Description:
Strand content: 15-25%
Amino acid sequence: xxxxxxxxxxxxxxxxxxxxxxxxxxxxxxxxxxxxxxxxxxxxxxxxxxxxxxxxxxxxxxxxxxxxxxxxxxxxxxxxxxxxxxxxxxxxxxxxxxxxxxxxxxxxxxxxxxxxxxxxxxxxxxxxxxxxxxxxxxxxxxxxxxxxxxxxxxxxxxxxxxxxxxxxxxxxxxxxxxxxxxxxxxxxxxxxxxxxxxxxxxxxxxxxxxxxxxxxxxxxxxxxxxxxxxxxxxxxxxxxxxxxxxxx
Length: 248
């Protein structure tokens, strides 16, 4: 079973950047094979890692819903979907990527949830690590399509809105009975001290603070890969310490 690291939080808190750097660290430290899953409808994890976003599970589901006749004779819908998902995994240098996307057709996820869950379970068994860049609403977790999570990192900035969103995510995890072995809070773009009462109100153990880093903003503005971020940068060093504490 893959060691799964999932990242969630309010939009704009740097989830995709953190997911990308985690994938980079696992690759560079040669910890094992890694699959990155972009589960945010605003898919940009591939671009952050210097790759083009390929086909998504959403487009596969749309195609299947629009053209069910494309299922080969003698092949079940379940097996065909499993095959299609496997073919859209992007094989990159040192890591693989899968983009979930979102289908346009109404109700597309409803009839394939069980199948998709089985497909993801089989797919992730082929990797040592799986890193999931999730949307704030935890959609794919709530549908239980991503299985049990080894570590959930809830990302927030120092704002009241960010911390409130982090608290709500923690509450959602309990309400939806999502299986997570460990849950932590990460403060990104950290510049000044946050009152202990505000941190305690989130209800998650704080595992690290990642300082504000101008290099990240520069790379983002130029659309350049996170692999160009210097290891000496405060962002990389801050996240590297966090990874040392959560990876087994």
